[in-house]
């Protein structure tokens, strides 16, 4: 089955952002990370984002994004520019949705 527009007439890209062994120090990049999210939201790329939490509601160090992008390559480039990724605090995997 080919990837194509879903119910909203477009393909979204899920970004699974996993914590690295440096995730505990991500506070160093939090302001830049939040500014980047605001930037990609303003550009129309960010649909939804948030941290992943455990059953007690505590951050796991990871996160999840839903992006609008022309293709997977663009979505991966957007995810790669996140300061949490560039700082080595998170890895990411992009999945068309």
Outline the structure in words.
The protein has 97 residues and is an alpha+beta fold. The chain has three helices and four strands; from the N terminus they run E-H-E-E-H-H-E. It has helices at 30-42, 72-80, 83-86, and strands at 12-19, 46-53, 59-68, 90-96. It has a four-stranded antiparallel sheet with strand order 2-3-1-4. The mean pLDDT is 92.
Notable characteristics:
4 strands, 34% strand, 97 residues
Give a quick precis of the structure.
The protein is of the alpha+beta class and 97 residues long.
Radius of gyration: 14 Å
Using the alpha-carbon principal axes, give the shape.
globular
Q: What is the straight-line distance between the termini?
A: 12 Å
Which band does the percent of strand residues land in?
25-35%
Element string (H = helix, E = strand): EHEEHHE
Class from helix and strand fractions: alpha+beta
Query: What does the average pLDDT come to?
Result: 92
